[in-house]
Amino acid sequence: MAQAQLLPRDLELPLDLRLPRVGSVDAVALEARAGELAKRSIKKGSKLAALDLAIRMMDLTTLEGADTPGKVSALCAKAMHPDPADPTIPSVAAVCVYPNLVAVAKSRLAGSGVRVASVATAFPSGQSPIDVKLADVREAVALGADEIDMVIDRGAFLSGRYAKLIDEIVRVKEACGSAHLKVILETGELGTYDNVRRASLLAIAAGANFIKTSTGKVTPAATLPVTLCMLEVIRDVHDETGRMIGMKPAGGIRTAKQAIQYLCVLNETLGTAWMTPELFRFGASSLLNDVLMQIRKQRTGSYQSGDYFTID
């Protein structure tokens, strides 16, 4: 779906490995492909496995100004035991919070295997000086964050200041130390699939472990076509360099049906090697309860009221 167009020389300078060409995305073909994959159906046994996997891939998230230690503690309890009445339900992948609540989450999740993710770099706008962004990251890591979700400076990208964008991501990656870096593109503000592809490549070039669609604060957030566009970048990078980059669609994914659609797109585009929480996540604040309800339905034949599950 991408026509040949080499990255400008100044964009290749920081690369240890040669990345694919930027190209031009065929929007009609991309959207048709995403629509076709969204119609795939799976059988009951496979559906239960997909729902179980979706839970294990979730970053259970609270990013509100009214967040409190009590709310984060409750979210951590749900992250570890999504359905206390059913011990077969797995834990989620991570809990994502603001930096000042990382220590609370770290303490509550100790020994559980659930990771602590923190947004940083002047989330959600990305409009702060680089020294402020780096201090934000270092503080989150010092408090115990295992993963950092940074947001790019969309103004720099949209005005063509790609070197600035790359430099910021490189420096943030260094500040992360051993923590994994997810780079949020905020695709709803990028305007075109061509921009989504270019921004994805730049983020990967600068060292992102994951690329992520959205902050969840802008509409539209994650969509299947945008996610497919980013997955195709990851596929092209792997074909060219052997690097395996993770993907995180976030924002607007609220139902089990949607989650399964995303997993179908993932499997068809990247294959089973990416069907793991190590390489794919859902940014979710309201998805978990619907998945739990669907699991109950698959097992019992009837829907369970949402009142039987805690409110996230």
Shape: globular
Name of the CATH first level:
Alpha Beta
Gyration radius over CA: 19 Å
Total separate domains? 1
CATH topology-level name: TIM Barrel
Which sheet architecture does the biggest sheet show? 8 strands, parallel
Q: What would you say this structure looks like, in words?
A:
This protein has helices spanning 9-12, 27-38, 44-56, 69-80, 102-108, 130-142, 154-158, 162-176, 193-205, 224-241, 256-270, 287-300; strands at residues 58-61, 94-97, 115-120, 147-151, 180-184, 210-212, 246-248, 282-284. Helices cover 45% and strands 11% of the residues. The longest helix has 18 residues, at 224-241. It is globular, with a radius of gyration of 19 Å. It has a single domain (9-308), classed as Aldolase class I (TIM Barrel, Alpha-Beta Barrel), CATH 3.20.20. Helix 6 (130-142) links the parallel strand 3 and strand 4 (147-151). The protein starts with 8 loop residues before the first helix and ends in a 12-residue tail after the last helix. The chain has an eight-stranded parallel β-sheet. It is an alpha/beta fold and 312 residues long.
Question: Descriptors for this entry?
Answer:
disordered N terminus; 11% strand; 12 helices; 45% helix; alpha/beta; 312 residues; TIM Barrel
